[in-house]
Amino acid sequence: MRVNEHAITAAVILGLIALPVWALIMDEPFTITLVTRAVILALAAVGLNIVLGIGGLVSFGHAVFFGIGGYAMGILAYHAQTYTTLELGMLSTGGTKFMPVIWLVAMVVSAFVAGCIGLLSLRTSGVYFIMITLAFGQMFYYFAISWAQYGGEDGLSIYIRNDFPGLNTLVPIQFFAICLALLCLVLFLMARLQSSVFGLALNATRQSAIRAETVGLNPMRLRLLAFVLSGAVTGLAGALFADLNRFVSPTMFSWQLSGELIVLIIIGGVGRLMGPVIGACVFVTLEHVLGGLTEFWHIYLGVILLCIVLFARGGIVGLLTGKEGAHV
Amino acid sequence: MSEPVLATHNLVKTFGALTATDKVSLDVRAGEIHAVIGPNGAGKSTLIQQICGGVRPDQGRVALLGQDISDLGTQARAKAGIGRTFQISELAMEDTVLQNVMLGAIGAAGNVWRFWKPALNVQSLTEQADAALARVGLSAQRDTICAKLSHGQRRQLEVAIALTLQPKVFIMDEPMAGLGTEGSKIMTEFLDDLRAQAPILLVEHDMDAVFALADRISVLVYGKVIATGSAAEIRSSKAVRDAYLGSDA
User: Fold this and answer.
1) Domain span holding position B145
2) Residue B210 and residue B237 in one domain
3) Rounded to whole angstroms, how far apart are CA atoms B139 and A200?
4) Which residue, A33, A183, B73, B181, is the most exposed by fewest CB within 10 angstroms?
């Protein structure tokens, strides 16, 4: 059986619309929250898929950007809810509860940090790259734990979800709509990126960096830009995740989260547009269904992952389309 | 005599006790094919690497059209006009043939920062790529995934990518390897015409091809150039026979 990749995209998006609508009719708000969680994790993994799937760079530190997005939201909203000022050198602000501004800050700061981490880590490759990105992740994790001003280990609670003009974001389906719209927008941009001249060059660099250099392209610059874009997208997802939970804590920076993002992509299909989305849906479903049965549900996740790595290198999208995933 | 297109001056490269390149000075002049031959381990690949930027020589210089390019990296040398093909194919195996050749066109155009338009819809790039594919005779395989190409077709694809770069000089590392008699003959004819576009530094083991094509031949043994001359001169050189060709050449 071979399914067209566009058909998969359409089916997944329709499913992501239909399920919450059904939950709304059946009055099951918790299901809506679950789907929202899947959508946000998918967004974070779509970000990672830029460097992992197209660029071939196994970043084991993408929780950094997820956490930065979360803390960008947390810090801005915290100052707004406590009516205190946030002093940033010359600049001082009273924080904000306005989502678009929070998203922008989350993305800009994530992109900047990704640029700095990329400049250092992209000089290495293979297992060293994995380790150096992991090291950055741990640095941020322990920094967040010791950051007493913003809750340290306990994290920060934001009592009321941030505002989006024209919507009541505390209504689950309305917040879900925001998240899904952002995911669709990013997926659209990702599809353009993947088929663009830049995407072709980055994808070829993954397969042979020497080839790219021999035609006069600079692999470092291509990868650095991919890393920056990737960080910005994952940062945006972090801001939404914090808003979903109305809570930010250092666990958003944890290496387990970085690992989970990689797992999502492998389950769904490395380098495939919908790979991260399908992976996130599977992950959240398992987490909910099996998590209700046993505390050790990760064992089953491990078995699934093992089967995919051994028998279906292209992940679920690969199984459906009959094509292998990108080799990393 | 006009200035050579490519010249190396006293290149030296040692790996520990092994001298891979020993004061190699050679040049490639406009319109010629200059072949470098030598037994396995003579330092041919190391020499190519030093010319293309992958290996930094311990001593000596590399000049392209009189400009010293010794301090440039691989990428900058490619931009300066060095068009290289590899002995073991360096291709994007998961991509189509067209995408592989377009990569060359993208590198030549120098503008990789385009994020919106699908690459396959950028006419200037596809036209260049198609033209290069037509020249090497790979048009029919345009949309084939590179990994499915035969060994010989990969060789042709390597050459097609180098063509899109419109280099000042081609550096070809064993383009005939694994081609078979027929493929080798076609490639020989192709290279014969190609020298008019840009001169070629040809490293090759196929002696029939080398003697048929080369305007000049340099013989590399233990990292040293032991002789440079026309095909006839090399064939009759006693030193070359003893070191490499053997008595029946």
Assistant:
1) 87-166
2) yes
3) 20
4) B181
B249 — pLDDT class (breaks 50, 70, 90): very low
CA distance A113 to chain B (A): 21
> Which residues in chain A show pLDDT less than 70?
1
Looking at the structure, do residues B94 and B110 belong to the same domain, yes or no? yes
The total number of structural domains in chain B stands at: 2
Q: List the single best residue of A189, A197, A220 to mutate versus B (max B Cβ within 10 A).
A: A197
Per-chain mean pLDDT for chain B = 92
Identify whether residues B174 and B162 lie together within a single domain.
no
Check CB contact under 8 Å for B103 and A326.
no
Q: For the domain that residue B203 is a member of, what is the CATH number?
A: 3.40.50.300
Give the pLDDT band of residue B247 (cuts 50, 70, 90).
low
Give tens-digit pLDDT for A290-310: 988 888 888 988 999 999 989
Measure CA of the first residue to CA of the last residue in chain A; give whole Å.
Answer: 26
B149 and B178 share a domain? no
Q: Which of B78, B95, B119 sits opposite A214 (nearest CB)?
A: B78
The three state secondary structure string of chain B is CCCCCEEEEEEEEEECCEEEEEEEEEEECCCCEEEEECCCCCCHHHHHHHHHCCCCCCEEEEEECCEECCCCCHHHHHHHCEEEECCCCCCCCCCEHHHHHHHHHHHHHCCCCCCCCEHHHCHHHHHHHHHHHHHHCCHHHCCCEHHHCCHHHHHHHHHHHHHHCCCCEEEEECCCCCCHHHHHHHHHHHHHHHCCCCCEEEECCCHHHHHHHCCEEEEEECCEEEEEECHHHHHHCHHHHHHHHCCCC
Tokens at residue B132, please?
């290069």
- pLDDT for the residue A56: 96
Residue B54 and residue B110 share a domain: no
The distance of A271 to chain B (nearest Cα, Å) reads 12
CA A148 to centroid of chain Cα atoms: 26
User: Do residues B33 and B92 both lie within one domain?
Assistant: no
From CA B21, how far away is CA B38, in angstroms rounded? 13
User: What's the pLDDT score for residue B244?
Assistant: 76
CB B78 to CB A198 under 8 A? no
Query: pLDDT tens across B132-141, in order?
Result: 999 999 999 9
Predicted confidence band of residue B1 (pLDDT cuts 50, 70, 90)? low
**Cβ neighbours of B2 (radius 10 Å):** 6
- The separation between the first and the last C-alpha atoms of chain B, rounded to the nearest angstrom, is 32
State yes or no: pLDDT of B2 exceeds 90.
Answer: no
Which helix (H) or strand (E) segment holds residue A10: the answer is helix A5-25
Report the top-level CATH class of A5-321. Answer: mainly alpha
How many angstroms separate the CA atoms of A284 and A276, rounded? 12
Same domain, B112 and B233: no
